[in-house]
Fold:
Amino acid sequence: MTGTNATRDPDSVLAAWLDEGPTDLPDVTRRAILTALPTTSQARRGLFAPWRSTHMNMFARGAAVLVVAVVAIGALALVAGPRGDVGAPSPSPVPSTPASAPPLPALDATFVSPSHGYQVGYPTGWTVTKGIGPWPPGTARYPANSVSDAIVTPSGAYRMRFSGASIALPRGMTMDGFRAFASPLSSPFNPDACAPVAPLPVPVMIDYQANPGKSPQQVEAVVSINGCLALAELGGYIYDVEVIAGGRGYTFTLDGQLTTADALAWLATIKLEPASAPAGSSAPSPSASK
Amino acid sequence: MGGDERAFADLVDLDGDRCYAIAYRILRDGERAQDAVQQAFLLAWRELPRLRDPERFEVWLHRLVVNACYEEFRRYRRWSANVRTLPVDGPAARDETVSIDDRDALERAFRTLSPEHRAVVVLHHHAGLPLASIAEVAGVPLGTVKSRLHYATRILRDALATDWVEGRKVRPA
Structure:
């Protein structure tokens, strides 16, 4: 073939060249990975480990089952390749180069949650999924589950996500009690594993209107920053937000290619309207949540 | 091995080959690709409890693999800058329609690309991911993916050395 003419597209030559080479992960590497698992501690989810660990394991199994199904359907038919030895690198985090996050578009549309008693601004054209609510008591809320409202970047660029849900709180429930079940994914931010992130001002305030005829107020939110550019599933920081107003506990998550300024701008568009939330489930009593 | 570890072992079985194929093609080195894949899977194991959307697992795992490749690339760049790595992983499957000249030219040109450009090329031309998915995996805007792919493709096409006229390549005598 050398020196001959060809009539193919150069991209097809490139693709054919890339297809050359090994495609099977050597068994020695598989064994090295599996051998290291028992001595590789998994991430903890914050200050309420006993309660959270149950959900963590269920979640991990759920992820595994789902991925098994997805991969089984879509796996490539790869040809067998050669074997080789492998080193044993330490499982240290791999900081990625911080991506130059595109600016958050104007939050010129408004989403009024039919299930959770709040409204929030979002960029026109983004994909909105209304949460079906109510939030089952005693269960964790995840941004992707059907309970939560979700607003994500339009198809073709899944890079930012807002999600929110709320639940009626029993009298006497504190913010710590609410966070114990509402924010199982919150955990102390580990700056060593991540690129720098701008600090949040304290306090972060959220608009709140008790009733349509009442004057607007503001309530303080607890905001934690989790995840980082290298490890978070959307490749950006994760802002977990909890706030209590009008007898309801709200939890919001903003994640993806967001700067701290973006997150604050988005939070500034939230208006809590607990009176508009339909009657539904309520959180477990403080004693039950411990 | 506990239940979670068994489930994770299934993930390694199912996705390990694909991750290795991607890592090998970015790094062009079998041992370093193995190191990158191992590091990515151990990170995935460690961080899995924090994954919030199980449907995002595959994209997330691929991001970890690509990031591990970047790390491997930078770790070895200093001493390997002037060393041409010969294929040691053969006998690899070879497409006989790719000429020796093409293969050599592409190999040399590919090694001039940054790991970020290599990743885009591999994810697009080998893994077959759409550009939007590549943006998710690489953690960069879609426009950056397009520009990287355009640049890298031009470099590789140029490396094919010759003139492509209406899909027909004519090598100099």
Remarks:
- Residues 68 and 182 of chain A are 28 Å apart (CA to CA).
- The longest helix of chain A spans residues 49-74.
